[in-house]
Amino acid sequence: MLDATSSYKTTDRRIPADDDRTGHRTVPETARSADRLPGTRYGNRPTMKDVAARAGVGLKTVSRVVNGEPGVTPETERRVQEAIEALGFRRNDSARVLRKGRTASIGLVLEDLADPFYGPLSRAVEDVARAHGSLLINGSSAEDPDREQELVLALCARRVDGLVVIPAGDDHRYLEPELKAGVATVFVDRPAGRIDADVVLSDNYGGARDGVAHLIAHGHRRIGFIGDMPRIHTAAERLRGYRAAMEDAGIPVAESWMSLGVTDPERVRRAAEEMLSGPQPVTAIFAGNNRVTVTVVRVLAEQSRRVALVGFDDIELADLLQPGVTVVAQDAAALGRTAAERLFRQLDGDLITPERIELPTRLITRGSGELPPAD
Predict the structure, then answer these.
(1) For the chain, is the Cβ count within 10 Å smaller at the N or the C terminus?
(2) Residues above pLDDT 90, as percent of the chain
(3) What is the SS3 string spanning 208-268?
């Protein structure tokens, strides 16, 4: 089985020997100078032939040791391993796995690698990939549909076995040739656009509805909603949950209570300050994602009156603030794990019909969502 970490370690830094014109292989800098091949050239990796020559054995014997096959005496295996260590040899897994019809690699396309939400999701995908002997290659779309397509097709060009995609765009017909060619694909956090594909989601609608209903249950009627771009599936679903909770309680929603757009701090701050001003300011805010929540917490810290807050997605140190931040938490690790497991089931031929899997959210009460209205 391919080890996704040890098989792809960066080798020791290499330096050329004094005579750099003979075309011989390079060796690790950490090897003793007496162990180096004479006249080595920078950039060429040692081969099994080099190992065989150093160990004084045949090429087939080296192959058996490298691939963990039987038929080699302990003493011979020791000599081969010593030669491998001295030369810094690494097995060429690319050719090996291609002979088996797979590259033992999968791609993960995220929205933003810097977003804390995607850390546990990415780690969960990587853990599942490693358990299946695969390497994970990931990249960020920066919420740009063109960049998403560019990344996905670049990964396909490198013949990854499968893809886990958090989509930025809403038209994924560009993937149809790859799907027909057998590239297993699972979308996560948001569904694919205009194609049938597996998708693993959180219950964005239900979670937002529960969070807003929680504020209503604590006496709030003027509740603001600040969310992400309306074209994004998660933002639209959370807004729908907000509206449903308000409608269930018979509370008319003023347009000034809702603000969707980019989640940079300046835009969010402006939206929050507008909602908190005027003759009838909101008494509570529902923040549509973790980035919005962080900015709203800063704005509320500057207010002279206490305003209730519930955020969608947990944030770091939320329990240490005063009051602690009440959140609707989704399980990012479960999203990644479920999507990756689904992907490998596709690769094993167990799945044919695409499915939509929706994972539940959880309301975590810490104090900010339980504050009563100030007026």
Answers:
(1) C
(2) 80
(3) HHHHHHHHHHCCCCCEEEEECCCCCHHHHHHHHHHHHHHHHCCCCCCHHHEEECCCCHHHH
